[in-house]
């Protein structure tokens, strides 16, 4: 992981890499959603609107955001919405699904299935053989339908509607249907993925579809490949960043770093970061102009690192994050978060600068232009983040 004197990569260079590799500088914008997802490795998908807003911020022609993202997700299937790192829903390039499944999904899947069986047994529900039979029947029905909601599948397989008590005697006790728990398990097992939503691109109600076929990969090799891809997009990153983003153990992170011969570099403040092999040199391209961006809640750039001081002043976190650590909509200027934005009920895009260091009239004009660009393609659609943050709630009121 690097021999001899280590190269130093400071905050300014990290911001320059971010501008180009995350397709945020106007000169680096992408032509299609697939290019955006490939550049970022993964788009946060737990809030459906985040996928479209993240793509729109990075497309050269933002007016094509909804139509092109729908095409990529539901027609060409070049992008797939599925469970990934930290048991979170993401949108991945389809070619990467096998890597994600083997590197992060298998461990979570085994745990989720065991938990479902334990909960069912505690409630006196049928056993594993019964559940396996229901699963096979449901998957066959889904294959026949192409895409379906849980209720539609339950018409073909009525046992999906059966209920069992959960956490009896505890304050969070409740009743679960077999369909809600089983489909979630099948999702983390890589057997089903989210299909088209029932409503618009902001809807959180999805149909289900059988997952596209993919090879079964060795877990260690898949972890190495995922880390190589992510460092290419986000390096340098610390061990803490890598452990947080992947959800792996420190041992797994270090094993993958060694497998890809990652190179160690020094960071501002004396920390150690890692880049992919051969990527420690200065950028081969440079950012030709300062840039502004309005990124959505849970954007993969804002959420890409656990250690964020090089692009986000610590004093801004209280306004821009919720209590669980989810970032809200952010305003960026030349590689730093400088404020936040929101959409009012009348559709107006409003923003506020919180950090004015180095932010003058040029920056304000550029941010205003990005707000106009966003307003132009969002149109009459109203976007409310799933996780509300203090500044977003204040601005949208």
From TrEMBL:
Presence of the UniProt keyword DNA-binding in the record: yes
GO molecular function annotation: DNA binding
InterPro entries cross-referenced by the UniProt entry: AlkZ-like
Keywords, in A-Z order: DNA-binding
Domain of life: Bacteria
Protein name (record): Winged helix DNA-binding domain-containing protein
